[in-house]
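Why do we care about 3D structure at all? Because function follows from shape, and shape follows, mostly, from sequence. That is the central idea of this module. The next example makes it concrete: a single protein chain, its amino acid sequence, and then its structure expressed as tokens.
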Amino acid sequence: MTLYPIDNVLTDQKINELQGIIQRHADVYNWPALKEEVLASLTENLTIYSTLRDLMSEAFEMMMFDQDGYIVHIDDRFSSQLGYEKEELIYRHYRLLHAGVHDETFYEQMWKTLSHYNMWEGDICSKAKEGTMIWHRTKLVRMTDSLFVSFRIDINDVKNEESRVIEALNDDYAKVLQQLMNLVFRVQKNKQTGEYYFVLIEGKLSKKLNINSETIYNQSLDSLVEGEELACLISEIDKVFSGEEVVFKHRHGAHLLYSLVSPIVENGEVIEAVGSSVDITSLEEAEQRVKHLAFFDSLTDLPNRTKLREDLKIGVEKANDTQPFAILYCDIDRLKYINDTLGEYIGDQVIQVIAKRLKETLPTNSQLYRFGGDEFVVVINGSKAHADRVSEAMLNKIKQPINIHGNEFFVTCSIGISFYGEDGVDAEGLMNHASIAVHYCKMTGRNNRLFYSPKMNNMYNDILFMEGELRKALYNDEFELFYQPQLDVATGEVTGLEALIRWPHKEKGNIPPSDFIPLAEETGLIVQLGEWVIKKACRQHVEWVDKGHNPIKIAVNVSAVELQRYDFADKVATIIEETNMNPTYLEIEITENSVMQNTEDCIQTMKALQKMGVSLSIDDFGTGYSSFGYLRKFPINYLKIDQSFVKNALEESSSAEIIKAMIQLAHTFGLKVVAEGVEEQPILDLLQQQQCDYYQGYFFSKPIPSNDLEKLLYNQRAV
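And the structure:
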């Protein structure tokens, strides 16, 4: 704690002047007998007065910074006083504010004290943006290993008025004390009864506390305080009369006071206790708010990542075979695409809905945390079977439709589970293994829960390797497009092509799309990959036309992620213009599930594509929501029957009936039907009987490179 240096204030001349003042009041002070005692008391009171000036104002500013000294938060008052916008200071080093008044030793000692005691107090001079110097009384508090908070009070006026304060000290002693913002008191002890009583209590704080200083003189402590506060005060003053200096907090009514009490020693005996108190109610409340900010998420008010780490350390220490616990790492699937398409405001509301649903679902023996972004963590006590039941309930609760401002969302999540003892015995290991299980879950289809197993480590390493290779492949243009013909069921004529991406890896050989497409979606690379496919298909079409081939429709698959982007239609328009592609020969295939999220926005995108002349088809129809009512609203041209129905049509009568119903339904809405996965003549015969329009599959050709496709089409025409 910083003290105003007394030796700079009370020079010999000043002491002589003070002696003169006291001598003029000898009838009050009994000067001949009390001279030395009064001077000692005066000096001590001046010291206490100076030490407690650092918290005399409630007009404090707050700043938060990390262990490297970079500012992570600053309040409006502080930044405004310094002449900066908040954005100019956030993530800048606090060295920016150095005024050059303090040397390196000052800051080294500050950090040393802060490291040892978790707190430092003192006066710091900062430089405002315009170059002026501003003094602050500062209290630094370590909140966590990596987070520090600075409370600052503007003391420019104090610094500027120090000379006037010193002059005021030359006036009547009691009059000076009455002007103090804080509370100053003196306590003496009755040697016969051992009872403590006030001989002085002054300061403006006394008025705030409703203390009548005139009636307190020579009254016992219980005339002012009672109960727990009285017991606390007596206990601390006992220590003072034993020769200690004490600092403590105590409540007086609705106020929290911070008091410093020191002994006055004469001839080796404590004759008096001199104390000062400051009202820190507002500061304490602010510290609690800061602590809450440090350990709780501002959006959901759930405990955050920092709180989770602290709680896990305690949980691991207490864990045993009779009280096991599990980590449920919940990652919301594709939430970032809601942020991209509808904005973070809607995304934040979705997060709040999910947090509320999880709190309603979880049992009392669990604790929910928001780990960050779209991630939640649940710590739950109990067996693996119990954790499994809870995770299933979480999945079912989250996937229920969410309605916000007229938008309906179908959000799912992936949950990775690690169990104390089996999957780790420390917080880091448990979280790491739960995270690996989440990634494994996402790569195997999402909307599921998986317990961690050691075999996932190899898969996780493969994912990391694959992600790096995927980025390199995009950069080096290592992908290829294969094409599968689509034929007229009635005539057998090739009427279109479906472009399918292939990845011939230099070391691993051909990597199937089922392995790298989910990874591309998870990492966000699917957008770049999708643009590459559309551009490549358009260029290939133009190249064939330039060679003299008849133009033929090319269908390109688009993921839900791409379709949900607000600028997707603009991207397609740009590609068409760059490649000089005739848009009437481009077909965009979208999955049924992709248009069931943010449906109205998807319809607007589809209408924009249709307006350009681009055809649209629903792929894998019948495998998802199967919302037939939307077929009338979607501006589509084709409906593709998923191959799972086509392949089983001869063995399962239900599949054949489904195919029949789909064809009739599509024709009712004026749509053409494409059957996928046709591999034998009887299936084709069935499609002809049901008047299906087009088909594709191995019966005619598997997907083949562009050069082989040219030969195939040439031979067909030659026949």
